[in-house]
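Good day; I would like, with your permission, to put a structural problem before you. What I wish to show you is a protein chain and, alongside it, a tokenised description of its three-dimensional fold. Thank you for your consideration; the sequence and its tokens are set out here:
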Amino acid sequence: MLKILCTLFIFILISCNNRTENIKSADGINNNDLYQVYINKYADKELLTFLEGDFSGDDIDDLIIIYRESEYSNKLVGIYKDSNGKILMTDPIPAPIENYIIKFYNIDEKVPNEILVSGQKGAHIGFAVYRLENGVFISLFENGMENCC
């Protein structure tokens, strides 16, 4: 428990800086198959940032994307392959409006990795820890996300 709290504290400190870059294209995405699934569904949405890494627990890089849903709403989706190689996409979940950061952590030292998401909306700062379970990102812990997403 102490390890989780320390990790979350460090993550909050990281979240409070302004190092976020807006990514207007997919430059840097290595898995084009996963990215193409995003484009097929959300071609009209502005890609804000992404992160590749394993969140599904199969030791193969997956793709997380934060995109602009509207002027006042951002969303996060995860794209991954199941055990049969079929590409799947999670339902969108709310994402921070500004200074969004996505990181992979293995907080509980079990597969799959957890995803830490943080950011803000104006003066409101929030962060959450998610894990993929049965094809859905579930929130393990969150603080302030209702005000920053």
Observations:
- The chain has three helices and nine strands.
- Residues 5-24 have pLDDT under 50 and may be disordered.
